[in-house]
Design goal:
The protein is an alpha+beta fold. It folds into three domains: 133 residues, Trna Endonuclease, Chain: A, domain 1 (3-Layer(aba) Sandwich); 95 residues, no CATH class; 134 residues, no CATH class. 52% of the residues lie in helices and 13% in strands. Strands 1-2-3-5-6-8 form a six-stranded mixed beta sheet. Strands 4-7 form a two-stranded antiparallel ribbon. Helix 2 runs antiparallel to helix 3, helix 5 crosses helix 6 and helix 10 packs across helix 12. The radius of gyration is 25 Å and the shape is globular.
Length: 398
């Protein structure tokens, strides 16, 4: 029997189709350039993308892996644990899931903190991860660009923090090396250093682990330079440690990167805050407790229909302003309600009521006030805990 040369399996064509589709969309949007390979044997990642600002200035790169989603994926994907380990131990990466039926590319960003939250280490080969319904891009959706740019900026901030930490650690090690004769003695200088470090570690490890995970992932110690005269470590070690932690906490708050997942009280507070702010857009009355079905219906059915009707009402009146907002932001903004009169809102409510038996069109909805992705995560956490969204009253926490 004559031997035949090896041929390409069907998976090679599928991979090439998915990578080509991603490259096509990114090139069409003119802000992200892709260096992505298909049918390659390079481990862990398929390549990188580089993000530019609106003036074509380079912001920075992100590593990516591209995967093809099954026809009935339901926003789930069995992710290889080797890739998750790479994101945790080597560098943060984007996972792009291509849905050829809807012509969308869903995406997730994995770094040390997000990977540890999904607890994959008991899985031998794959771990199921969940894409977010609102976190995708297609031919007409470009909001992902600003989100990726923010990720790159955060990565650069982390890198700078690590670099500063390395320099300070080297300074402290040099100080201790030059002071070997004092090791083991009760010198007041070294007592204050230890008081400072003890308080710093206690704050990070006990009270603010999220801050530690963001600024110092995989870092067991922190180093700070020390001078004998006029140094706050010597004058007020514990207070200075608290000041450092406070500055990092405020920095994380400003960047809106506090971790809300896995905390029942925070999840409840966030969901209720979201409903309070957008109850009209969700078609929900204001009350102290909500059932899971009514919130799900409000979010997945009523909300998209409300946004369609609101924009349909305003677009003929303010075509230039409304179109410019959609093009600039890449999404339909829930806070557009501020442009509507009470009569407009009543008309929208009536129109939505007539359409509730119809499926809404898939559109990207977002807001700068309260993150929709965080709302989804918090709501899903409450469902897992079987705790209905309710207002946190004083008696609940006493």
């Amino acid at each position: 029997m004559d031997a035949k040369p090896a041929s390409h399996p069907v998976s090679n064509f599928t991979d090439d189709q998915s990578v080509s589709f991603v490259r096509y969309l990114l090139a069409k949007h003119r802000r992200v350039i892709a260096y992505i390979s298909s049918i390659d044997k390079w481990p862990n990642i398929d390549g990188r993308v580089e993000i530019q600002d609106e003036h074509n200035n380079l912001i920075g790169p992100l590593s990516v892996q591209v995967k093809t989603l099954t026809a009935n994926h339901n926003l789930k994907y069995d992710c290889e644990v080797n890739f998750l380990a790479y994101c945790e131990q080597v560098e943060p990466c984007l996972l792009l899931g291509v849905d050829h039926q809807s012509q969308k590319v869903y995406w997730l960003f994995f770094d040390v903190q997000s990977v540890r939250e999904i607890d994959y280490k008991n899985n031998k080969s794959t771990k199921t991860v969940h894409f977010r319904a609102a976190q995708y891009f297609d031919e007409n959706t470009t909001g992902y660009i600003e989100e990726w740019a923010k990720i790159v900026e955060n990565n650069k901030q982390r890198f700078q923090s690590h670099n500063d930490l390395r320099v300070k650690t080297e300074q402290l090690e040099k100080l201790l090396k030059n002071a070997n004769k004092a090791v083991g003695t009760s010198s007041i200088n070294f007592v204050t250093i230890h008081r400072f470090l003890d308080e710093l570690n206690r704050q990070f490890d006990t009270d603010f682990p999220t801050v530690k995970e963001f600024f110092y992932p995989q870092q067991e110690g922190r180093g700070f330079s020390y001078h004998l005269a006029g140094n706050p470590i010597q004058d007020r070690p514990a207070d200075y440690a608290k000041e450092i932690v406070k500055s990092k906490v405020l920095q994380l708050v400003k960047m809106k990167l506090l971790n809300h997942s896995g905390h029942e009280l925070l999840a409840c507070e966030f969901v209720m805050a979201f409903i309070d702010r957008f109850h009209e857009q969700l078609g929900l009355p204001q009350k102290d407790e909500y059932g899971f079905p009514e919130v799900q219906f409000g979010f997945h059915r009523y909300l998209p229909l409300w946004v369609e009707e609101a924009y349909g009402l305003l677009l003929p009146r303010q075509p230039i302003i409304i179109q410019a907002q959609i093009i600039r932001d890449g999404y339909f903004d829930l806070d557009i309600i501020s442009r509507l009169s009470s009569k407009d809102r009543e008309e929208i409510s009536q129109n939505v009521g007539k359409r509730l038996d119809k499926e809404p069109r898939p559109i990207r909805i977002s807001t700068t006030k309260l993150d929709i992705g965080t709302f989804i995560e918090c709501f899903n956490h409450l469902r897992q805990c079987n705790r209905m969204p309710s207002r946190i009253l004083c008696r609940d926490v006493l």
